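Researcher: Structure for this, please.
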Amino acid sequence: MVIFFANTRASVSYFNKLATFISGSSLVYRPRVLAVPAWRALLDMPRSLLIEYLSRSTKEFQAHHQRLPGVLWTIRQWLAAHWHYACDRRFLDRVTPTMVVVWNGLQPRRSIFVAVAQHNRVPCVYMENGLLPQTTVCDGQGVNANNSMPRDPDFYRRLPLAPEPEQINLTVREVRATRQISGKSLPDRYIFVPFQVDFDTQIVLFSPWVRDMRGLFREMLEQSHAMGSTQLVFKEHPSSKRDYRHLHDMLPPGRGIFANEYATQTLIKGAEAVVTINSTVGIEALLFGKKVVVLGDAFYAIPGLTLSARDSKELASALARLDQFTPDEILRRNFLAYLKEHYLISGSTRTADMEHCRLVKERFDVILQANKG
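Model: Predicted structure, token format:
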């Protein structure tokens, strides 16, 4: 039996479609606050899992509220962690699934379910929105920097040379908050710096030295002194509700602009390079043959494909090397072709049809067979 763990409205809707396609061999599990726990398991939660849960919860709280949580909040989280663990233990002990499926799997609540499944030696599948338009991730290892995409550049170089990636129109994200408009033309020469959502797991878990978008702004502004006539173009993430208007005012004349009114595709195509923590904009930039500098943990931070920086000094070095750096064309083409043709599943969660469900089920079978081997 395949168990789908669904604790959001969107995941319930999508997983119900997949469960219906798989038919009687699946079940959508929606955790309830008033569920009955395995009472003995209330005291059996591994200390390492508890520490990880509290650490992730605290980081998310700080990212949302920009302050440390209080003692009462921490106590509630401690109690919630033990309760969730015991409830998941009871459920998985009763149904004994052959596989569990989670959306993302990195948020604190979902990470507990994953840990219980691993404790029971049940294979886990991680799903996420695709890294290219109209695609979905379905991975038996993890998502984002934890995914199973090969990191060895020679792996891609050994593949037959793929054709130039097809030029696509990137998805325009819905803007959820009012954005300040610059009203300015784009500079002749610029580096594009896309903002991400501060409390997204990409930043909370996979950005070791740039804490948030204010930190990213400060780092890039500091580096701009050595960039000559090349300016910085920032764009706030459409899904972020954080107010960055004070950062707009901190940009000196001739140093750069915030270009919220411009489409991301336009900003990528006009840029000399893209600097990102670990956004999918980095992959989109590779589609258009742009130079990319990665500041966080990202599966596409591969030598020869992108430049990487783990601190301010390495960032300065990477920016100084941009004029001499050219992405390895064989590596770029084969990486993008492998990503599209072998890793990602065609179709998005919002428009999942029978063919998409069939492809997902095929991937489930491959992951299950790999775990048996």
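Researcher: Any notable elements?
Model: The mean pLDDT is 92. The radius of gyration is 22 Å.
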